[in-house]
């Protein structure tokens, strides 16, 4: 490896590890959902009742790690009568299970011209996101804030009742860290749209086999992998567990306008239902 390349990779690893350690500074006290035997035993019926409602769903960010696994799980569980993915390019799927997935290709810079893509969906999942390293500061803000907010506005106008937002552990609009500041601002501004139900998911470090290599993540995954479960459950989580917790939450009736599930809540909800592993 070229010395400059090695130095850059090392710096990236340190930066990611520092970010991971920062996540350990704050401990959210999320609801301990899914911990009771009654809730676990009721899940099959909740899923069946949900299927009977013939709801339509859209996914934003289906090409990313979380969105990709979410789409797979939605199809596997057959929860919705119509599944639409909204993105900047058409995705190619080889598996038969994806044959009925509807794809809406949009220009995120001109989303107002694609309002029809957001029409007629009961439930929406927003997994849009990029990184400052990949897109730069302006690009990160444009994707994680502007695209998300405009999509939420169009979803609301299009009749979406339940909007699900993948945010981040530590999200806070008053944070001195840009990433957490933007995530916190988006959470608050989406809330202002007043969906019938608004669910926010704040995962910590996502454990997954990325299609896109990110320098330093191997080191951080090893770090979190060495933690006892009592710590790991609060600060890291497999992507598949996030997705399954999101879907378990979606089929559970709720009278709350807004709900926030932190890393620990998602971890235990998925674990209680045997959904931590692929």
Describe this structure in words.
This protein has about 280 residues and is α/β, with parallel strands linked by helices. The protein has a single domain, classed as Rossmann fold (3-Layer(aba) Sandwich). The protein is built from nine helices and nine strands. The protein has helices at about 5-25, 35-50, 65-75, 130-155, 180-190, 215-225, 230-235, 240-250, 265-270; strands spanning about 55-60, 80-85, 100-105, 125, 160-165, 195-200, 205, 235-240, 260. The chain has a seven-stranded parallel sheet, with helices on both faces. It has a two-stranded parallel sheet with strand order 7-8. Helix 4 links the parallel strand 4 and strand 5 (about 160-165). Helix 1 crosses helix 6, helix 3 packs across helix 8 and helix 4 packs parallel to helix 5 (about 180-190). The radius of gyration is 18 Å and the shape is globular. Mean pLDDT is about 85; it is low at about 5-35.
